# Entry
Amino acid sequence: MLTKLIAIKNVGRFLHSSTPGSPRLAKYTYIVGANGYGKTTICAILRSLKTGDPSPILGRKTLGVIGQSTVDVLWDNANVRFDGGAWSVARPEILIFDGAFVAENIHSGEVVDLEHKRNLYRVIIGDGGVALAERDAELAAASRTKTGEISAAARALLPYLSKGIAVEKFIALAPDDQIDAKIASQQQTIRGLQQADAIKNRASLSEFALPRIPETFEPLLARTIDDVAQDAEQIVSDHIADHGMSDGGGNWIAEGLEHAGNSCPFCGQDIEGLPLIAAFRAVFSSRYMDIGASIQSMKSALGQGFGDGAVARLEATAAQNSGAIDFWKQHCELDNGKLRLPPDAVSVIQQFGSAALSLIDRKASSPLDKLDVDVPFTSAEMTYDEILTAMEQINEDIRAVNIQIAKKKAETSAGDLKTAQAELATLQATKLRYSEVFMPLCNDHITATTEKDTIDRERESVRRRLDAHTNSVVRPYERRINKFLDVFNAGFNIAETTHSYPGGIATSSYQLVINNTPVNLGDAKTPPDQPSFKNTLSAGDRTTLALAFFLASLERDPGLADKTVVFDDPFNSQDAFRRRQTLHEIMAIAGKCAQLVVLSHDATFLKQLWDKAPPPDRICLAIVDHRSQGSKLGVIDIERACLGRTASDMDDLQTYLTTGAGQLIDTTRKMRTVLEAYLRTTFPTSFEAGDWLGDMLRKIRDSGQTHPAYDLYTEIDQINVYTSQYHHGEDVTDTTPDQIDPTELTGFVRRTLKIVNALQA
# Structure
């Protein structure tokens, strides 16, 4: 059982609750405290300890503080700690009746919704049934998860399936190691079929025609006139040099000799027999003339092969091929980079042609001299040879592509587009089926389907057992609840307690029976003009019903003897009779459980429980506000705290407020005793046993805002002023010292009950 609340830090009003020698709890533990001082916080801590869920504590973290929330308790003399995030161990042997129990299991405000019915079902069926219900819920959730997995896998697959192919057929597709090549080929086939006419009329690629240097080029450069006499050559050479005709002079003379007879064509003198003229005729003989003609022919050939016209033809072929490549690459497998003219081909051709023409020009100026190729020509020739080699490979690739083109023309003329598209869809589906994304989805679809079948079979078995268990306990539970309602004089009972599985989760429901008339619970949407839970039961009735559900569940708990049972203000909005009956029922439970803990704002109610408990096994604590240190727990003398404040005083005030019954002067005087007892109980360290209401108000006034009861001063002072005129200065045997206004008295009674938390504000 709960042995000690050692320390509560930064939870609700408990900033740091530890005190020297914190009291040990007993089998019968009663805790008194004003509303808002921490009773609900203690219940939240115990609920968190029961389940191990930190949220009830974390949700009540003290606002405005930096430190984390911590709790230390003793359970069966073993330390249990909440470190700000988790408990060191949970203690499930705690049962709590408080506002949270009502809100979770019975109703919220005036409404019973689906979640209440689900939670109440768990209360009804007990631990054995809860285990089955939890397993059923787990299996239902697992089945829904598997259904979601199957649907998700199918949704992910369907958009990529060709029209008409089912998921099962898609999953059954066989793997193919050559799938990418087949898809690419099929895509080309489809493009070809879609452009059959264009393919038929489109030309193939053209090979590049490259110029070459004639084989006679270098032999021509090396030719000389071996049959001309040395002296004639010397005479001619000197003459040419003397007249400054080294540059082309020989050509000029050779052409002039064609017009010479026996006289000079330039001056008309007789030239017959002159040695110089003989030399001219020898040098510029027919062989010399042949060399000149060969040079001119070579120059013309180089111009045609390497000139602007040749380059233009080459570039035109490249442009035509470029357009053809862009077209055919959509239908054939080709590397367009290998089919295009190298970017430097034109400049290399031009440079090589220029180097060759330069040598021919030099030969033409000195046709009698042997001319060797120079370095610029040799370098240009090496670069040109590289281009020739590359272009020969390009032409070979062009011939291979043209073979593909011819084949494609033949295919497109005989193919069927729809058939080809269907084949492509199957190939693409096969690739997706075994892709990194879709293969797991297919496997998951298969696995999830198999697992869901297994889950559903187990769930059917569990549900049959759960239905049998529920049917065995519902009727006895309903009868026991109605017995409690009868002893509480509730004036209604419940009937038709049933269970069902809306949303796949076990849920209970019942009807109220009022004046022998069944009333459905309804929900938040039930019209206000239709009888339902929210408009047929008073606040006291709802509290009584919730308490009956809780008490009935305790009686059916086979482990009750080991449980700590906690009640937090179990009599809210109840009349005097139900309060007294609540006392009897609580003490009946106390005799069957390991420990009873009752928290209440009403010390008189706790005093009545105190009187029924064995003295060695009881303790009463008070939650006291210590201002800057927050609320703290300390032992209180409940008998001393309740001196002058009896259960009949409180009952009489409540009876007067409800029915108007009672002597006016007695009611007026009882307000003072109720307030005095409340102040002694709530603030035991602030007032002495002999303090009357006026003394208490003086102490509050003298201490000012530092007094823990300061916030109540104005309200209590006004009640004191009102009641003192009927309590002092008159013959106490005179029952009518002044005329009392019942309406005014009713207002002050209501204010008194609100202060002592006996009336909901």
Notes: DSSP finds 28 helices and 13 strands in the chain. Residues 1-93+559-642 form a domain with the Rossmann fold fold (CATH 3.40.50.300). The longest strand covers residues 2-11.
